[in-house]
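Hi again,

Forgot to attach this to my earlier email, sorry! This is the prediction with tetrahydrodeoxyuridine bound. I've pasted everything inline since the attachment limit keeps bouncing my files.
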Amino acid sequence: MLTIHYDEITDFSQLEDWELDLIEKAKEALKGSYSPYSHFKVGASVLLENNQIVTGSNQENGAYPSGLCAERVALFYAGANFPGVPIRAIAIVASGEDGLTQNPISPCGACRQVMLEYQTIGAKPYRILMVGKSKVIRIDDASLLLPFSFTNVRDASK
Ligand code: THU
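Structure tokens for the complex follow:
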């Protein structure tokens, strides 16, 4: 049996102040999106255990697969600049041609894999806030987004 617990929050006043702040940072990050091909901006903000917030946005490229999602831009920046500092939370927002999406977007499979590995090395579950205009989906453990996930070969062979 696999059960996934998550909150669906439509009343944003139920969010904590630090969560609202993190969401604002993700929205600000949309400004840095380079998405001339999809015209779909994604922003992500990562709160670290040392209270540092790092942000990222999707960066596309004329050689399409060379682009990178907002989540991984932010997470790799955090990994590169604050190695070993566990993550407390990540917020994700998106904006299409009509502005912020009504519904939250959910990270792609490759981003989930990366989200999970940073959780594993941080040895602490972290909160994921997927944010739309009408609601926030809140999940408290990155592993819930990727059941039966791949673990690196060294760990799996133990
Ligand atoms: N994208 C993200 O940045 N994050 C997601 O979770 C889903 C998709 C980007 C990739 C591409 O630049 C654009 O959104 C359209 O797919």
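The longest strand covers residues 87-96. The radius of gyration is 15 Å.

That should be everything now.

G.
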